[in-house]
Amino acid sequence: MFIDIPSELEAALIDCSPPPWERDGSFLAQSTMKRYRTELTAIPRFEETATILRHALNGEGGGYAVLRLGNLAKALGTDDGRFLRLVTAFAAEVAVPFSPFPRWPLWKDIGVKVDKDPGKSSGIGYNAFHMDLVNAQRAIELGLRDRVHFVPFLPRAELWRRLPSFDAFVFTTKGLEAFGLVLIEAQAHGLPVFYSNLPGVREILGSAGVPCTPGDPRSLAVALDDRGRDVHRREALTKAALHNARRYDITATGRRLRELTLRVTS
Questions:
Q1: pTM higher than 0.70, yes or no?
Q2: How many other C-beta atoms are found inside a 10 Å radius of the C-beta of residue 242?
Q3: How many CA atoms lie within 13 Å of 172's alpha carbon, on the beta-carbon side?
Q4: Cα gap 62→81, rounded to integer Å
Q5: Per-residue model confidence as pLDDT tens digits over 19-47
């Protein structure tokens, strides 16, 4: 479930300055949690938003929620201690931990690896938030802050609505892919696809996409520059993409499954 912060609450949070935290081991001290709660509950619409978050985390069919904090991060900057304290205050108030520890732990520093047993040291909402911050921080370090736009997970209908406005679809996975439905979705919208040349992906796309060496940014850059300069090859790639996507139309797939079932059972 994706949750937006009401604009009234967002404006108040930008002006808010939670006190520095005190720790009890690796956890927030109870006194800090009480101070954070006192400050936040006095802000208009905080309790309303907290209730929505708690329901998403604890309600029937719940257990996962993404709180959109992009405007706060943009206004305060991710290196501003206030931003981290505000997020920690939200987490301390509403988060449900993965592991049975009694209280919410402090956030890890931006830049640490999240693939090292993240479930043992984090709560629901932590991993996605942390990875987004790491990605954003990396873009800043590379001087790409104004050229890289991070988009949260989109419902399929919204993704399909946006795909036609893109120039290309780049699939840079370095691991094995069983099928990769998103590749066919992109091709069905006429997008040229540049993909890591891996088993599974290669069988699905073949010459209907542009293969690149997995994990080699130069290989990808050369392929993108080459197609970017050649409008005719780009148009040919778009036609090939549409043709390949038709191979996986639900009617064609259903027909092949029926034929296979009949062969196996005959």
A1: no
A2: 15
A3: 11
A4: 31
A5: 887 877 656 778 888 888 888 888 989 98
